[in-house]
Write a structure and sequence with these properties.
The protein is α/β, with parallel strands linked by helices and 314 residues long. The chain has two domains: 5-191, Rossmann fold (3-Layer(aba) Sandwich); 196-310, 2-Layer Sandwich (Hypothetical Protein Yjia, Chain: A,domain 2). 31% of the residues lie in helices and 27% in strands. It has eleven helices and 14 strands. The protein has helices at 17-27, 77-88, 103-112, 129-135, 138-144, 159-172, 188-191, 195-204, 228-236, 293-301, 307-310, and strands at residues 5-11, 34-38, 48-50, 59-63, 68-71, 92-96, 116-125, 148-152, 177-180, 215-222, 242-249, 257-263, 266-272, 280-287. The radius of gyration is 20 Å and the shape is globular. The two termini are 29 Å apart. The model is unreliable at 45-50, 207-212 and 308-314 (pLDDT under 50).
Amino acid sequence: MRTVAVDVLTGFLGSGKTTLLRHVLDHGLGGQPVAVIMNEIGEVGIDGRVVTGLSNVEKMVELSSGCICCAIDDYKFDLAVQEIVETAKPHLIVIETTGLADPEPLLYRVKAAGLGLDAVITVVDAANVARHLRETEVARAQIEAADFLVVNKTDLVAPPAVARLERRLARLNPRAERLRTVRGAVDSALLFATGVAAYREQARTRSDHLRADGIGSFLYRSTAPLDQDAFERVLAGLPADVLRAKGIVRFAGRDWQCLFNFTCGRHELTWLKLPDATESQAVFIGRRLEQHRERVLAALAACEIPDQRRADHG
């Protein structure tokens, strides 16, 4: 099966997951084909036609944006996802959980199906999250699993209360990046995998211009193979300002290339056979990157295996 990035969108009942998803489908994702898997398909208000011919998918609808939306039986998850990947050829799969779902079992299913976990995005209802945390364990599990915490409905809460909430969220999940929003209107480029290509192109222009929200990027390229252990140590030691990093790198002693994904302190490696790939490329996205760029690039350069050492390595 093709390697496809998966974003898991979770959050407690009424937090605004579907509103966020609708905003993203209407305003972003760079025109890339996206498959959306939902438990509660009726809430989106889809205008489109039913796509037939997928035996393991209970319901699939083609959205006007070019996306597809479907509902899948848990027991058919692996087969259904494989059908979606091979038939619809999406660039990204977004899975929206029910509001009462602990995301951890789903993350296990995603990885077991051979998919690449891109990010866990948890929507938090700023007006009601304190009650949710008092009354349920699931709300806490959803927050703790997140790479990105989208603090929604901030217009319903006084600014000092939002600040207190963010401090509480930071204690529950210090790794996650927090983003404030009203009615799910958040820039999708940072949250979802499709935005990385735009940042990669921006980095290739060598522009030092940062976006209005302080998000920038830089690119690493090298024709030298890398030491895998050293590279993983670099990923583990990236500063908190680096929110995302993605790329394909060549490791010394390996015939396959490595597709790596770093999201808010968590990294994963998957393997691809790319006979024509002779260069490692990686894009790093985050805040205040002008403070970290040279140090990160120097650390990556230290992972490179010079020509004279290649024969002795591995």
